[in-house]
Amino acid sequence: MNDMTQINHHLTDELLMGYAAGSLPEAFNLVVATHISLCDECRAQLGAYEAVGGAMLEEAGLNAGTAELAVELDAVLAAIDAGPTEPPAAKPTPGVFPSALQDYVGGDLEAVKWRGVGMGVKQAILKTSKSASVRLLRIPAGAAMPDHGHHGTELTLVLQGAFKDENDRFARGDIEIATEADHHTPIADVGPDCICLAATDAPLKFRGLLPKLAQRFARI
Ligand code: ZN
Ligand code: ZN
């Protein structure tokens, strides 16, 4: 499996900061970790946030408007300007699933216990904490998912094949981030079955801290 494919759709700064701060639900952590293992760009950006420290980011979010915040922000900005000195290299994993995902599944594609959900689409729900859920989806080439809206945030990471929807086309390594404002109908490309890792949260869990953090750092 060649992981050198061009990735066009990336994680947001809010997700990378949330991951660095440890404030994401487990299901989102898995999607973020899987994207990062395929994407040099996001891995480098995460390195910058982790250099600052998740604790500091969290504190900055809680102490809005204080003098300490300005100091902390300077440190954050300086660290980001400096950039990561040497981002850890991606560990190439043979197969479809990066190692972070293989740990959850207990192997690669052949270890997945698929269950049909109709229209030829199959899924396998992975065990995580209840605050959000994550599943593998297998969409036959050319098939459409039911059109749908979202009650929270949905992260969809492509692992094999590709899909298109009203917004764009997503291939291996690409992540689509859909929110309540989005309504879409994903359709799998012709070719190999489209296999995605998709996470959705409980509405209030993700929307509290992260939008506040995002505002705080919007000028970055
Ligand atoms: Zn990326
Ligand atoms: Zn969706």
Description of the structure:
With 220 residues, the chain is α+β, with helices and mostly antiparallel strands. The protein is 36% helix and 19% strand. The strands form two sheets. It has a six-stranded antiparallel beta sheet with strand order 1-2-3-9-4-7. A three-stranded antiparallel beta sheet has the order 6-5-8, with no helix packed on it. A hairpin with a 5-residue loop joins strand 2 and strand 3. The longest helix is centred in the middle third of the chain and has 16 residues. The two termini are 35 Å apart. The C terminus is likely disordered. The protein binds zinc ion (2 copies). One zinc ion binds next to helix 3.
